[in-house]
What does this fold into?
Amino acid sequence: MSTPRPTSMPPLIPFASFDRADAAVEQLLAIYTRNTAFIREAFRDYSAGRLPEGQRVRACYPAIRIRVNSYQEVDSRLSYGHLVEPGVYMTTVTQPALFRDYLREQVRLLVRNHGVPVEIGESDMPIPLHFAFPEDEYVEGEYMEAPGHTLRDHFDVPDLVVTDDAIVNGTWQGRPGQPRPLGPFTAPRIDYSLYRLQHYTATAPQHFQDFVLFTNYQFYVEEFVKWARDTLARGEGGYTELVEPGDRIVTRETVDEPAVPLERTPQMPSYHLKREGHSGITLINIGVGPSNAKTITDHVAVLRPSAWLMLGHCAGLRTTQRLGDYVLAHGYVRQDHVLDDDLPLWVPVPPLAEVQVALEQAVAEVAGLTGWELKRIMRTGTVATIDNRNWELRDQQEPVQRLSQSRAIAMDMESATIAANGFRFRVPYGTLLCVSDKPLHGELKLPGMASAFYRTQVNQHLHIGIRALERLREMPPERLHSRKLRSFIETAFK
It folds into this structure.
């Protein structure tokens, strides 16, 4: 039998009770700071050849645990912040400084709704070496393997067994006696997404705001940047700074300085118009296709945004639609195929009343139309999302028949994916599209086909999305987070 390697660990910090959210979060921060520093120091020894041969190094994530011994009646209007039945619940925590406000709210609600303290301590889930570094430091590939040993011989590395979506997918199965999930994601799953966000968007997770716009066209980005800089210059809306790809920070004093092009353009560039308490607006150009839409929402979801909206272009399917008309989605035909294994097609993705009303009111406000006149430029209906951009080249009988049976009024490649992932991750979602072509009626998306009306609508479209998010921001969080997003077996954390 092989001799087990000695493991070096910092002294265990046992669980202790806290009835104040601020103190609980400070303890999470203290544990996380100490344990990640312990791993980084050991890695420096490893890099310098000072780590003893065969020595393993381990430190674990902090955790929040709560014990509820009886059924507790809570306000039936609340969609989160409480547990459905007695038991022991726990979640591991990473980067508590980044999630400070979120964690405070969740702990405060638990203590208030159940009248018992939470317990903060050290879990038995190891922090992978790669996740123990600040956002601007990384484990270089040259350290992965060395003669006679690898990093795995000394440190914990990311483990896919605990880096999955079993909790949010409703497929989590615990062992007897194991605490049930308190939060929607494990700490390693969150860490994984935080690093992927930096990779895809070229901005640090700390800059992301709670209200998110997804788009698939660069001119929306250009208009957003222009509006954001103008807004900063005027000192309006409580916005404090704009963060552009490469973490370039634009303030009121620097709005006139031109942006410096990045050496390498990120796959999904993001722009963050920041406001106190992360209450500003993030815009992400996700590019084209459902795969991109799923990828980015998989990662943005761990930040627990308050809402996200899709602003994009679509094919209008009705003869009465004009280029530049708006489509407010109230249902989706999901033919994107990228979420079929995570959210089966038999699961409906319902419209959320709060988001639908905010979008309709924003269209009316920005366009200056109400009532019957508003229907001239906006139609509510079903949006079909597909994964084949060149669907027009197929035999038209089968797809046209399916579209007609579904009562779809528009088709695109991202909206149903973003809405479905919003439903899956319990993030309020909505879709407002702009008709850019009518392929079933001879108006293909070709150079020169866009009318002056359409070109005007593009800028208007963006400002409708911005205004809708501002309306959602004005709502109390517990009202915005719809009960439609929650199952009957649910984590307490939002």
